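2.7 Reproducibility. Because tokenized structures are sensitive to small changes in the input, we list the exact sequence used for Dehydrogenase/reductase SDR family member 12-like, including any N-terminal residues retained from the expression construct. No trimming or masking was applied before prediction.
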Amino acid sequence: MSVYRNAIWFLNGIHHYTRKGYEAASKEFEPQDLDVSVVGRSFMVTGANSGIGRAAAMAIAKKGGTVHMVCRNKDKAEEARVDIVDKSGNTEVYIHIVDMSETCKVWEFAEAFKKQYPSLNVLINNAGCMVHKREVNAEGLEKNFATNTMGVYILTQTLIPLLQKSRDARVITVSSGGMLVQKLRVNDLQSEKGYFDGVMVYAQNKRQQVVLTQQWAKANPIIHFSVMHPGWADTPAVSTSMPQFHQMMGERLRSVEQGADTVVWLALSRAAARTRSGQFFQDRQPVPAHLPLAWTHSSSQEIQSFMSQLETLAEAVQSQPDPELKEPLSPSTPQFV
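Resulting structure tokens (single pass, no recycling of outputs):
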């Protein structure tokens, strides 16, 4: 059954997720949607020094936005910043060096950012990783989960109070269509049981991001939350993490700009703000977060368990002694259903 389901998903991907899929979908785009100026609005983009994150940061800078690039590698970040400033003519581009897999560091960064800056209009959770061998970070969290899920949770949850104070606040998370073949697994967040398959762990993390987005949207009605699939794009991450897939797809892969298009649309356009919060997007359209007749839906109890586990893990990180950081992650913890 799973082989059949994965085959259906792949055939759907060939039709929709490739360069041809983008070209077909883009015929329906409204060009004026991105005819905007965002001077005075601030945007945080994680993983902004390459791939989709860099393309999104570039597009935002060209529209006049203040860009906060959150990157792991200082040299690559500085090279990307020079290129973005040069091509956009916008000098309001700032670098913050943070490894999203280091959970405690992510929290410290978010707390410091919240104190230093008066507003943040848009958060783009783009950074991700696909590690094929099970590794853990300093907090003992599995590396993929730490980066793709826990890093996104801690960063977003810590910045929600700042976003709430900001006009037309939005949170966009870059997920993947691979999540469509995954049901939320609440009893093994750290991938400790059975065979470790990095691709499936990554897809599970991407399902977790969709669930997080849906729950955040319910709990924070004044912020617009969305999660999206960029399609299959020719990024450094894809060529490194999935070399066989990258080679097989070749010219059929989207450009990074095509992959970033919906991120940029969700971040900048007025049309995006009019859509219902909490949805999964592909090529500027909300699409179902489950395949037809799928077994991937979760019960409210499973979702509650997942959110409670994240909250417990976050509290453990915050309890690390640091005299500078006494503020809790969020003033009140909403009940997720």
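The beta strands are 42-46, 66-71, 93-97, 122-125, 170-174, 224-229, 279-282, 285-287.
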